[in-house]
Structure prediction request, 484 residues.
Amino acid sequence: MIWHIVTRELYDHLTSLRFALTTFILVALMVTNAVVHLQTHPEQVRKYSEKVIASQNELKSRTQLYTLLRNGPGKLYKRPASLAFIADGGEAFLPNESVSGYAWTLYGTTSLWSLGYPRLNMNTISTLRPNAMAIDWVFIITYLLSFIPFLFTFDAISGERERGTLLLCLANSISRSTLLVGKFLGSLITVLITFYFAVLFNLTIISTESWTQLGAADWGRLGLIVLIASCYTGIFTAVGLIVSAMTRESRLSLVMLLLIWVTFVVFMPSTLGTLSSKWMSPVQSHYQFKTAKDAAIDQLKSSIRNQQETLKARQLKSADTSPDNAERIDISELEIWQDFVNKDVEIQERFNRQYLAEQSAQVLRARQITRCSPAAIVQYALESMAGRGFNRHLQFLEHVNFYVRQFRDFIVEMDRDDPESLHIIGVSDGMSKKPISPEAIPIFEDKLTFQDTLNSAMMDMILLILLLSVSLSGAFLVFLRADI
Prediction:
């Protein structure tokens, strides 16, 4: 009986003008998305490749350990996402590289390379609303796959109540739950047919370009993205049935659904994101951050001066001693400089991490607030699965941190393998002078695994499933208690 109702609903929807119009709009938007992606993505990949090759060539030109340690690995670049057409993710406001930050020269000793993070533009990324200017899948799904289900459900029950056919249906051996499930599946399948058809157009066009070939992991992520979109569509299909069951006139049902759509899809993501940045305590300014870091560095420099004065006093007392004592004093001076440059790096990177953590915490708190809207939830889930947006940026920085530790471990191990070295890391005279093979230097390669994207999207996917369950339960409760 359910499939008989589903078939009838499908036939009514598929032969309607609204089905033809929604199919045309979705296909047109998906084709536009594919064409824009083919015009921009190959150029982004080409520029990324050129920058990476130039950075690696510069790195391999350094054949001395101390030169490697002082100059570091250089700029580390974020790989363009193969699924960039899914979500813009505010990438224009996020840095695409990690750079070194600070340098000084004191008493002939130069500071070492330290890992710095480009500043985030908090005024733009803290709002976290769907970007309506970018015609990507996020825009199409959040706006259209929430609005189109209302077009097919606003009169699903209220319309039959107006025509008197609802009482006629329930007078037969059809239960209310069976009728509701049939109407839900009929409307949902109709909307998904238009969406899947548009997706096929989109992927067919994108697959024609050799620069945008998708791998097995990309197709797996695409499958989950389509499932997320289907779940999101199901939520608004159930909401449409709830309102249609509560009202006796189709016009009133349509007005109420439009208000719900404007509130939860348009108004809440934009307004809550903006208000959340006003409610939360502001992140320290870059001037405050730099002032605090400089104060810590000045304190460290004062400490090194005291140690230098103490060492000079010892040198004066040891002027008439044996050469062995003089040599030991020279080594002690190198060890003082080693302690100084390494603490300098530690202070800089600690302050950089704390500053980044404060900025990230504010963005993540704003995301928690905007998750009151299903549109925001699906936006974050799609961005994560597409490898775009803020979560992807944090994953990139994690990869950078891991590589920097690997890079420094390599320098220590190479120095340890040289028996002629004093093994005083951070000072030119205390490190190995043996040349390094360029092929032995570890190279940074930004990777994005399927597990990374799934982990970052898991919470939003669970929230969508819970919302679908709640909306379906609400539709059953309202329809079972509604007057015929």
The longest strand covers residues 97-100. The chain has one domain: 2-481. DSSP finds 15 helices and five strands in the chain.
